[in-house]
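Why this split exists: single-chain examples teach little about how molecules sit against one another. For that reason, every record in the complexes split bundles all components of an assembly together and asks for one structure covering all of them. Below is a record exactly as it appears in the raw files.
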Amino acid sequence: MKKETEAKVVTFTSEAEMPMMPASVASTLYNKTGSWRYMRPLYANQTPPCNAACPAGEDIVMYLQLTAQGRYAEAWQTIVRENPFPGVCGRVCPHPCESECNREHLGGAIAIHCQERFLADYAAAHELDLPAVDAPPREERVAVVGAGPAGLSCAYHLRRMGYQVTVFEAKEQPGGMMRLIPEYRLPRKVLEREIGAIVALGVEMKTGVRLGVDLSWEDLQDYAAVFLAVGQSISRELGVPGEDAAGVLHGIEFLAQVKRGQKVGLGQKVAVIGGGNTAMDAARTARRLGAEVTILYRRSRAEMPAIDEEVNETLDEGVKIEFLCAPVAVLTENGRVRGLRLTRMELGAPDASGRRRPVPVAGSEYELEFDTVIPALGQVADLSFLRAEVQTERGRIITDERTATACPPVFAGGDAVTAFGTVTAAVGSGKRAALAIDCFLRGIERPFPDLAHNVQAAPRRRDPTVVRFENLNTAYFEEEPRPQERQLPAAERVTSFAEVNQGYGEEVALNEARRCFSCGTCNECDNCLIFCPDVAVLRGDSDDEPFVFNYDYCKGCGICVSECPRHAIVFEEEVKFTKT
Amino acid sequence: MREPKTYARNYEIPEEELTYSGSVSCPGCGATLSMRYALKALGSNTIVVIPACCWSIIAGPFPYSSLTVPIFHTAFETAGAVSSGISAALDVLGKKDTTVLAWAGDGGTFDIGLQALSGAVERNEDFIYVCYDNEAYMNTGIQRSSATPWMAWTTTTPVRHPKEEPKKDIVAIMAAHRIPYAATATVAYPDDMIAKFRKAKSIRGAKFIHILSPCPPGWKSEASDSIKLTRLAVQSKVFPLYEIEHGEKVTINVWPKDGGVPVSEYLRLQGRFRHLSEDAIAAIQAEVDRNWERLLKKAEMSMP
């Protein structure tokens, strides 16, 4: 019998029309068994936890899928749709995505940051350009104040939407805090390439222009909207006697001088005060300049805000960390630092940040000898240029969830608003602002409740439910170990500013991409098609719809739902008909 | 047609579909899925012989068929005899490349059709005999068969008097006939099942494939658990996947991962075992372990 593709109902009107023997003359396609169903499977594209955790809303699973197929250029393009700084973020992001990764339970989280870096390095090696702006040009001009990650991200996304964007930067070079990240963590050429690519898209860059000095608020009237991304540029003071002495050098100024190649008067015995990433950067930089370095931190290891890996690398390089101590005075001799008077601290009740508050131990003061002291206690924003209409609170600009300030055409983001202090958070903030400014200029009302789902410049169809480990069918996954990134040995690291982390090569990247569970996102493993008893799963004809259900025949058994390894299929109740 | 991605595939299964949608099998039917795999492996040059069983119904009411290949419906006890006859007729016609596939349930194999089957395989007739075993007379309303496991509930072995006899070892009976090929298979391992059908097709003589086929209404299990259940049956060693060549050479095809799982994981998903006491579960575990040890010894003895 030739295979039928159409349902055919056979009706015999007389015995003569029937076959001689009781043989079949048509297929069971006449029987639409879909009417039996009370539950319906549905390809849902639920949200992977990495995507939900990414401050920049990167579609991680999708670029891992493309990497797994060796489609590296497309994978890189998938990242830069959300974040124009994969080379930077792959190196310096604290990767909250990996903390949420479901692979953690079977061999360790996917090394997402290494994958991101691999793709960025691939794009650099192959000189791939950012996708050209294909949106129709828009009349409106937008000013972005501050060329850090938030400002550049906002400028990039607005430019992609067709706007005319001018970025004003007070410093001589764009990059903001990214420029202070030491060479051994972020080589200059990586940053230059990614900033250069944004400028090449047609973003106008005006450096050496400080708002309130070289540029007035009136000058900004020419723009339809303004995005303030001024960051936090003023170092916090120690607040102890003697801090004006020669030999006290603030963390970010120290890092900036070293990056500029200036000679820094650094002594042999250096104290770095603080427990954040700037403190680690300052300590490791001083170590590379030949100093003996001690970090002084007032709480314990568990409360340190620095990235854990960063702390380990710092310790590996021979930096000492003294916990639970705080300076009470900088000891001086002839106007120069000769040491610190410190007090022991102990942890008391938790404070507003949830960390236990350190309190001094009475009578525990002691002295240590240092010739250089580098306070790295964090920064605050310089908001002296602001007009009164833009409201602030405790040194931060107040905005609503759409990044709009109290003064309508002015939007704000980045560390001056959030103080998250990471490049990726700033990138996300800038992108959110770009979308908000776009809506504002078009007169569209749109809420932005959740960063992961609404910041997408090019969203794919997706259910916001986050897939957890217990939703997966682990029968299809083996325990496989997380690969190790290549790293220079510590002894070699402290002798130069060569990049510490070396990433990994194509073969490892390919395997690592295949190790990804692809939570909630179909990668065409074919299980649904193979296990359907009723041949009701068919291949689709687009990447968005690799499979389709034939609801005419699907009986709603749910095998496809339970055998989908990655929970990309959900089971929903059919619409009920109720008497009215 | 778009080129599908292939890097994430768990199985390589032939694309061609030789079964139709619209069959009247219950949702989550293992027997229906088994037929789909079998025909994917054997191809369209196949004649199917179906004695009375669930598949008499699943194949469609007159004048419809749920298969693209010819089916011969026959009486309960006759699958072995009718398949022998069709095989002989094809021989006379010189059609040596057509596969004859007898497709019977456990009732038609373990009980009612055993005599015809034994006769046919003893004569080493050239056909593949499949017993899709759902462990009771499911089509007529879940009456016990000699394939029903010890202590299982059926309508004729109610909870107050669950089945007292152990399941018959049908593969051992077939192996005792010294037939060229006997194997077990199940729906959670489609690649293994398809490989076994292909192997069976390549051998001339009598071949027997015993398929554990989940039945949600009869096992009182969730339709969506059909694959999970058979995977657990293999992983708990309740239903090991192995093959026996010429009654002697035993090969285990799927090894339980990390030493396997306890039988309770398989049993607790099925309402027909809900009444089991801890002691009964321990007894089943002991029996399963003993059978697995015996199988391991046979496999070891088969090593060259």
